[in-house]
Amino acid sequence: MKKILVLLLGLLVMVGIGRFLLTLPAVQDRLLERGTEAIAKRGAVPLAESESLRVYVCGSASPLGMGQAQACIAVITPEHFYLIDSGAGSTDNINRLGLPTDRLQGLLLTHFHSDHIAEIYEVNLASWVRGRPHPLTIFGPKGVDEVTNGVNASYRQDRMYRTGHHGEDLLVPALGVLAHKTIAPGVILEDGDLKISAYVAEHPPIHPAVGYRFDYRGRSVVISGDSNVNGATLKIVEGADLLLHDALSLPTVTALSKALGAAGQTRQSKIVADVMDYHASTDSLIELGKQSDVDMVAFYHLVPVPPNSVLKEIFKRGIPDNFLLAEDLMWFELPIDSDDIVVNNP
């Protein structure tokens, strides 16, 4: 017992000395120097080269739930880089993943709910600062011009300030202004080995809403945005390697709405209940897996984000082995000339 007390006393003394040392400017400056060196070196390391089709989860949350960024998926090949949606918090995850925003070619919007468009300007700014050599194009269904023009107008003075501060040679004014392109269902872009197709999503009363399929050298990924499972979903996933689909846990949302109502929070109860009719339930996605030949299904835009292991298990009830819950910073590698899908957890 005496030895334990001596050890504890020694530990407390060491902790006290450590805290004292951290108050000394010389120690602080040395730690600052080492910390900034580490940050600079980490930022200078490029994304590892790969011939694969790679898919990164930059945001896996819906407005119901906290702790994750809102909807954002990145699709990268050796020659291409596109984002699908740009929800709140996702730009920070793009930076944490070390994605090459200086070569970002476009942002594809599935629809115009706030949790899919909140950081359009943030990702534009981040890639402009990194040296993107062309204006960022925002692709989307009818109405994308209104959204894009609104962002450009809202942040006009921000662009002026930044160019005025850093100079036009570093921040070329024209490269900070967003471009836009209205798309319709079908093939919307072909660039070398990459083909991007849009399909009609079912997210009433939002119309139009779309999802996207990327095909690259024999590998493919479908990203739903927000949608129920419908005939277009079944058609677009035919032969796909990977499907990232928004997913709603019906038991959890039902229980949450009921509890809110019982607690007198009638407005919140109705809002929660309302979301059940325009997001794909986990049961409908399991049925989709049975009816299609898609190789892997990852639930994202989780309604709600499960904050603990119990709710995760409820979310995963009945799912087969080729289904999983996505989370921020997870990424998938689809090697060329292979059927493999490598799942990389954060």
TrEMBL record:
InterPro entries: AtsA-like_MBL-fold (IPR044094), Metallo-B-lactamas (IPR001279), RibonucZ/Hydroxyglut_hydro (IPR036866). The keyword Lyase does not apply. Residues 71-238 form the Metallo-beta-lactamase domain. It comes from the Bacteria. Keywords: Hydrolase. It holds the Pfam family Lactamase_B. This is MBL fold metallo-hydrolase. It comes from Candidatus Litorirhabdus singularis.
